[in-house]
Fold this sequence. Notes:
By secondary structure, this protein is mainly beta. It has a domain at 6-67. Helix content is 9%, strand content 43%. It contains one helix and five strands, in the order βββββα. The protein has one helix spanning 75-82, and strands at residues 6-17, 23-34, 40-46, 49-51, 68-72. A hairpin with a 2-residue loop joins strand 3 and strand 4 (49-51). The longest helix is centred in the last third of the chain and has 8 residues, at 75-82. The relative contact order is 0.26. The model has no long low-confidence stretch (mean pLDDT 85).
Amino acid sequence: MAASDHANTHESYAFACLRCGFGWEQEFEIEHRSGPDGQPVARYLVDGRQVPSPLTQPSCPNCGGHRVRVLPAGAVTRARRARGGEDPLPG
Length: 91
């Protein structure tokens, strides 16, 4: 990609906090660009705001803990349905 080229993709992840047990899901828009030296650079966005990569150090929106397991998209929803609950997701 040239420095001015970029592509946007969307990725979703599920998360489970190992501290408080809270589970949530989040969709990210990822801007893929070329950096000044030609290396690939990715910016993660949620609702148009830049956020850290969900794969580096996610934090729990419920307790602020950083012991968070990243799971495939849909894992939290499937677990809630399996136990018969439809807990609202934060938002």
